[in-house]
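Form 7-S
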Amino acid sequence: MRGHRFADPLEAPGEADLTAQVDFAALAGWAQRQGAAVHGPITQGEFLRRLGIERRAAKLKANATPQQAADIDAALMRLTAPDQMGDLFKVLAIADPKLGTLPGFDT
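Output:
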């Protein structure tokens, strides 16, 4: 997606969002059979909250103009709210088991 429209991802590499329907259970099962550690899936909202997005937004707003603060609040809601991207998108990580629990996946 680019500019809220379908786009050829090869037309402008790195400037379009790639979105796909992923069978997380199948992907996780395959990764585990290969010896990898699987973390998640969890919702994007939960993942970002665990990484500290709310604290980061507060720090950004501390020196922001009123318009910038409103923009930060709107972006935070878009990324984390259950009725927006927060529950729609999921996060799954596949890693070397030696790494332990990855940031954002610990409770």
